[in-house]
Bacteriocin immunity protein
Amino acid sequence: MRAVDLRVELMPPSVDRQRLDELCRAISRIADLVLRGSESARQEIETFNARTGHAYSALDFAEYDGGRDLAEFALEAARPARPRITDITSDELVEIVRRLLAGDPESDYYLRVLDTNVPHPRVSDLIYHPPAELREASAEQIVDEALRYRPIAL
């Protein structure tokens, strides 16, 4: 299958420098409050989440630097938490998986798009920790598996 040009809605939205700086300051301030055990940390996190649409916890602020830097955290917070695209196509999902497999610099955002738009609850495992039958799978096979998933009613 040939590469697909992704629509604007599927691309990581750009974020202006002023917004990133504002979020960096807020994240640093909240991380400091959390690490000091401040009573106001919970309210600051709730306010931050309300402003960004995310659902970060105190742990996210206390330990963010274990896996990313401040600017990466701010960029994530500035972008939609669950970018749902109601008319996303299989070809577009395949292109997103291709980008993830290739280690695209925007992989974090593309993974969020994929996770939000397929029924599989652990779609990232299909890519990064695949079961034996998907170890050498193509992007098309991964998308087929992600779309085939149906939850079991209990």
Notes: The chain is about 55% helix and 0% strand. The chain has two domains: 17-78, 83-148. Residues 60 and 66 are 10 Å apart (CA to CA). The helical segments are 17-35, 41-52, 58-62, 70-78, 90-101, 107-117, 123-128, 139-148.
